[in-house]
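Q: A reviewer asked whether we had any structural model of the full assembly, not just the individual parts. We don't, so I'm hoping you can provide one. Inputs are below.
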Amino acid sequence: MTTASAEETASRVNPDVDAIRHHYEVGNDFYRLLLGPTMMYSGGYWEPGEGLREALDRAQERKLDAFADLAGASGAKRVLDIGCGWGTLLDRLTTVHGVGRGVGLTLSRTQQEFVHGLGNERIEARVESWEEHEAEEPYDAAFSLNSLEHFVHSSLPPRERTKRYRAFFGRVHKALRPGAGFVLHTMTAEALPMNRALLDDLKFLQRSEFEGCHIPHLHEISLGMEGLFDVVEIRNERESFAKACRAWLELLAQRRDEAVALEGEDVVARFERYLDIFAYTLEDRFFNNFRITVERRS
Ligand SMILES: C[S@@+](CC[C@H](N)C(=O)[O-])C[C@H]1O[C@@H](n2cnc3c(N)ncnc32)[C@H](O)[C@@H]1O
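A: Here is a predicted structure for the entire assembly that you could use as a starting point for your response.
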């Protein structure tokens, strides 16, 4: 085995900005077509009997409202969204839940442009990694929805990964006031029963779509936050994330020609494959999607 140079190690430890942009800087018009008007890229809360595609936006809004309550964010002065996507959560918090100011972090310049285009003066998206963020004053609540999967590089050995998770939770702890709520949505994986088809699909995810992405194990998260946060609730919401993937696939199928005209056949085929992999790995219980609500310890 060869030993990695200091430079190689550093580039693995720091976020791989190009790998993130490969996925999140596909044009905003394409994402609008894929995700629908709410522009949320994580699971939603459907009521029984509701159509996936028809109720997608309502399901997303329900989720955002539930998250606002869980984090105790209503009426808060300042909130932080780590991995803010297109700013939908911050927009809703400031327009519906009386939040004074929302700061979002993303590595995608096109997402930042989109947030800017919302024209909501109470929210700001910064192209900044979580490890660079310095809070001007403590936040009253924080969120991170399906972004943690990007924060720790898959090539790191387990002990180094744990250090990175600790660094992440340490940062969030530092950014929040004591007693503040933090709601984290993240896929997790336990030991996977390997089979050839699954290995091929995981290889595709690592090589072609989400290079370096690591789906955390629950114990990595709990080691990361030990002593820093008190757990309030953990819920496995794998079905609701799988439903969202299926809804996005339906939307994409419905407007496939337009999507191809915007971004080309290769990009559309990549998205179709990765969304189907996420949907079936959640449905077949290879992956989970945990909603973890915690409170910052003093
Ligand atoms: C799946 S999207 C989720 C977006 C949004 N939370 C939602 O639910 O719609 C992941 C987000 O994480 C952001 N991200 C990835 N790595 C990051 C990092 N190191 N620091 C801050 N944001 C990051 C991406 O730019 C993207 O906005």
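A: Points you may want to mention in the reply: The two ends are 44 Å apart (CA to CA). Residues 15, 20, 24, 40-42, 82-85, 105-108, 111, 129-130, 145-147, 150-151 surround S-adenosylmethionine (CB under 6 Å).
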